[in-house]
Specification:
CATH superfamily: P-loop containing nucleotide triphosphate hydrolases
Number of helices: 8
CATH topology: Rossmann fold
Structural class: alpha/beta
Oligomer: single chain
Bound molecules: thymidine-5'-phosphate
Largest sheet: 5 strands, parallel
Distance between the termini: 18 Å
Number of strands: 5
């Protein structure tokens, strides 16, 4: 049974979530929590190899999704669930919503298919809060030094992904949208106030 706190960070490339994930880890550690900071793709035992394939090889969008999904299943089973059962805080830089936004809204893989597969993979596990760092594709692209195939897709693709995230956020109460175009300090403050506002720490 889950006892810990599960937090995911999402957004288009260059949204600043990786920097904020590190700050969030520190925030929880200073409060005495044990924290696991992880990411997708890459956080599972097969993760580094899967990440390497996903970010460097061209493939059909359905295969791409299934590969992300395999990494996700191993990530949940091998790392996320055990840590939550120990009562720890798990912060994941990307999780299931990345597939819905990138492979679903971005590349046109059937959302019904993605949800169907996720039903098997997640087994009811959803984040307590998903922080969406919202930035325009122009701002995101300016911040990244394009280093992989998916990051290299350009503004039109990222626009679809961003809109996808905003659609998911409309449906899912666990989403908190944070304006990622503000300064790093302001984004941090907004993130912390979302965490505190939802009563995640004091069990409210
Ligand atoms: P990162 O740069 O945030 O580590 O993410 C790597 C890339 O993988 C990023 O461009 C988003 C992409 N991605 C998907 O397309 N689908 C997914 O399910 C995940 C987890 C990541």
């Amino acid at each position: 049974m889950k006892k810990g706190i599960f937090i995911t960070l999402e957004g288009i490339d260059g949204c600043g979530k990786t920097t904020q994930a590190k700050l969030l880890k520190k925030f929880f550690e200073e409060k005495g929590f044990k924290v696991v900071l992880t990411r997708e793709p890459g956080g599972s035992s097969i993760g580094p190899e899967v990440r390497n394939i996903l970010l460097n090889k061209n493939m059909n969008p359905v295969s791409e999704f299934l590969l992300f999904a395999s990494d996700r299943k191993e990530h949940i089973k091998g790392l996320i669930k055990p840590a939550l059962e120990r009562g720890e805080v798990v912060i994941s830089d990307r999780f299931c919503d990345s597939s819905v936004a990138y492979q679903g809204y971005g590349r046109g893989v059937s959302l019904d298919f993605i949800n169907y597969v996720h039903n098997f993979i997640l087994e009811g596990l959803l984040p307590d809060i998903t922080l969406l760092f919202d930035v325009s594709p122009e701002v995101g692209l300016k911040r990244i030094h394009v280093s992989d195939r998916i990051e290299g897709e350009g503004a039109e693709f990222l626009k679809k992904v961003r809109n996808g995230y905003l659609e998911i956020a409309k449906r899912e109460k666990r989403f908190a949208i944070i304006n990622g175009e503000k300064s790093k300090d302001k984004v941090y403050k907004d993130m912390v106030s979302e965490i505190l506002g939802r009563g995640l720490i004091y069990g409210g």
